[in-house]
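Bumping my old thread because nobody answered last time. Still need a sequence for this structure:
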C-alpha cells in the first residue's frame, strides 16, 4: 500500500508552490514590462531620427539639394554607431547607407507614410535589430518620394534582459527554497495543537475515557474541533458508563432468578418426590421464568426505542378515557392500600394506544407503591404551551435530588433492596425507563420533580391534529 504524504508535507509543498508560482508570475510580468519599456524607448528613438530625416528631405528643392542629401544624412547620423540608415529612391536605388545590414524586404516593401510607423525586429549574426521604414515626399517638382529605413542595434537590450532573466530565475529559486523552509517551520508550529490532540487521543481507551483534548492551545478552528471532540468523548464516556452499569445490573437481575431455578431444580431432582411436590417446584419455576421473560421483553422494547422502531401504528388516543380505564384496573390495589385515585381533564393525542396506556400505567403503579395509606394519587390532563400535559401527582416522601437525577436510568431503583414487586417492569427497575422511551417515541418528553408533600411526574405530548 502506498504511503500517503502527511498533512505537514502537503501544506509545505502547497505553500512553497504558491509562493514560487507567485514569484514566477511576478518575474514574468517584470520581464514583459522591461521588454515593453525597451521597445517603446526604441520606437521613440526611431521616431526622432525619422523626423530628422523627414525634415532634411523636405528641404530638397532642386537637383543640387537632392545630390547633397547623402552628405547631410552622413553628417546627421554618422555619430550614431548603433543606428543603421538606408535611403532609396523610387526605383529602389540606394542613395545612402550607414551600417550595411540586410533590411528585411517586408519593411522596404510597405513603408509607412505617416507616424506612428510600424516597427520590425530581426536578427543578423550576433546582433538583433529593431527598425522602421517611412515613405517621405520631396518638395522638388516632379520628384518621387524617397524611402528611409532606419534600424537600431538592440543587442545591449537583449544582453541586459538575458542577464536580468538569469538573475531573476536564481532569485526565484532561492526565494522558493526559503519559502519552503519557512513554510515547513510555520506548518510545524501550526500543527503542534494537532500533535497534542494526537497524543491525547492515543491515551483514550475503554479504561481511560476521561481524557480530553486541549482546547486553549491552538487557533479557534482547532479549538472548535477540540470542543466538539470533547463533547463526543463525554457522550461516549456517559454511554460507556451506562452500558457498564446496565451490564452489571442485568447480570444481577438475571442471576437471581436463574440461581433460584437451578437450586429448586437440583433440589427437586436430588431425591424422589410426590407429584404435588413436583407441581409446586414447577409452579415456582414458572414464576421465575415469567419474570425472566418480562425482563427480556422490556429490554427488547428499549432496544427498539433506541433504533426508532417502537411505534407500529398511530391513532387518536383519548388520554382521559385511558386513565379512567387504568383506575378501574388499579381500584382493588388502591382500596387495599387505602389510596384515593382522582383524575381531571382530558385531551387527545396521536399515538399507539397500548403503549401510551403502558406508560401511564407505569407511573400510576409507582405512585401507588410510594403513596402512604389514606393518601391521594391525582392525574391532571390539560394543554400548556401547545402541548398536552399529563401529570401524575402523589402525596408522600419527596424524592431526594440525587435520586431524582437517576430515576429514568435502566435497572435503577431508589430503594436499596431489590425486592420484586408486582407491576410491568418495576421489579427490574425498567418501568420509568420504558415510560421515557415510549414518550420520546411519540415526540414528547417526561420530567419529574419533588414538592413539599409529594412528587410529580409530567408527560408532555404533541396534541392531535384537528
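Sorry it took so long. Here it is:
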Amino acid at each position: 500500500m502506498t504511503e500517503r504524504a502527511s498533512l505537514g508535507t502537503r501544506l509545505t509543498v502547497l505553500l512553497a508552490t504558491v509562493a514560487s508560482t507567485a514569484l514566477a508570475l511576478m518575474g514574468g510580468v517584470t520581464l514583459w514590462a522591461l521588454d515593453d519599456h525597451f521597445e517603446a524607448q526604441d520606437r521613440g528613438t526611431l521616431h526622432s531620427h525619422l523626423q530628422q530625416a523627414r525634415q532634411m528631405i523636405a528641404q530638397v528643392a532642386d537637383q543640387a539639394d537632392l545630390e547633397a542629401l547623402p552628405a547631410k544624412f552622413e553628417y546627421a547620423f554618422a555619430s550614431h554607431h548603433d543606428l543603421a540608415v538606408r535611403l532609396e529612391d523610387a526605383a529602389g536605388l540606394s542613395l545612402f547607407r550607414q551600417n550595411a545590414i540586410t533590411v528585411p524586404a517586408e519593411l522596404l516593401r510597405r513603408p509607412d507614410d505617416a507616424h506612428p510607423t510600424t516597427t520590425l525586429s530581426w536578427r543578423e549574426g550576433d546582433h538583433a535589430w529593431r527598425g522602421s521604414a517611412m515613405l517621405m515626399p520631396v518638395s522638388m517638382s516632379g520628384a518621387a518620394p524617397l524611402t528611409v529605413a532606419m534600424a537600431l542595434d538592440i543587442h545591449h537590450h537583449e544582453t541586459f534582459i538575458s542577464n536580468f532573466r538569469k538573475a531573476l530565475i536564481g532569485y526565484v529559486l532561492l526565494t522558493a527554497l526559503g519559502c519552503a523552509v519557512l513554510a515547513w517551520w510555520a506548518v510545524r508550529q501550526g500543527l503542534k495543537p494537532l500533535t497534542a490532540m494526537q497524543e491525547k487521543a492515543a491515551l483514550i481507551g475503554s479504561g481511560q475515557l476521561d481524557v480530553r483534548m486541549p482546547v486553549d492551545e491552538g487557533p479557534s478552528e482547532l479549538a472548535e474541533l477540540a470542543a466538539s471532540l470533547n463533547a463526543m468523548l463525554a457522550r461516549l464516556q456517559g454511554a460507556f458508563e451506562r452500558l457498564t452499569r446496565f451490564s452489571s445490573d442485568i447480570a444481577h437481575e438475571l442471576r437471581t432468578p436463574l440461581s433460584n431455578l437451578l437450586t429448586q431444580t437440583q433440589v427437586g431432582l436430588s431425591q424422589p418426590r410426590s407429584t404435588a411436590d413436583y407441581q409446586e417446584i414447577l409452579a415456582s419455576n414458572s414464576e421465575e421464568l415469567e419474570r425472566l421473560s418480562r425482563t427480556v421483553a422490556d429490554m427488547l422494547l428499549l432496544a427498539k426505542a433506541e433504533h426508532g422502531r417502537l411505534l407500529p401504528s398511530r391513532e387518536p388516543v383519548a388520554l382521559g378515557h385511558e386513565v379512567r380505564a387504568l383506575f378501574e384496573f388499579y381500584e382493588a390495589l388502591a382500596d387495599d392500600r387505602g389510596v384515593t385515585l382522582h383524575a381531571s381533564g382530558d385531551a387527545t393525542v396521536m399515538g399507539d394506544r397500548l403503549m401510551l396506556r403502558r406508560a401511564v400505567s407505569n407511573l400510576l403503579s409507582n405512585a401507588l407503591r410510594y403513596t402512604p395509606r389514606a393518601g391521594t394519587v391525582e392525574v391532571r390532563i390539560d394543554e400548556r404551551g401547545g402541548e398536552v400535559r399529563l401529570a401524575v401527582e402523589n402525596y408522600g416522601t419527596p424524592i431526594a435530588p440525587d435520586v431524582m437525577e437517576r430515576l429514568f436510568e435502566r435497572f435503577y431503583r431508589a430503594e436499596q433492596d431489590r425486592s420484586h414487586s408486582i407491576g410491568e417492569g418495576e421489579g427490574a427497575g425498567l418501568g420509568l425507563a420504558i415510560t421515557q422511551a415510549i414518550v420520546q417515541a411519540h415526540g414528547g418528553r417526561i420530567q419529574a420533580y419533588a414538592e413539599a408533600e409529594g412528587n410529580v411526574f409530567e408527560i408532555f405530548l404533541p396534541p392531535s391534529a384537528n
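Residues 212 and 231 are 9 Å apart (CA to CA). Let me know if any region looks off to you.
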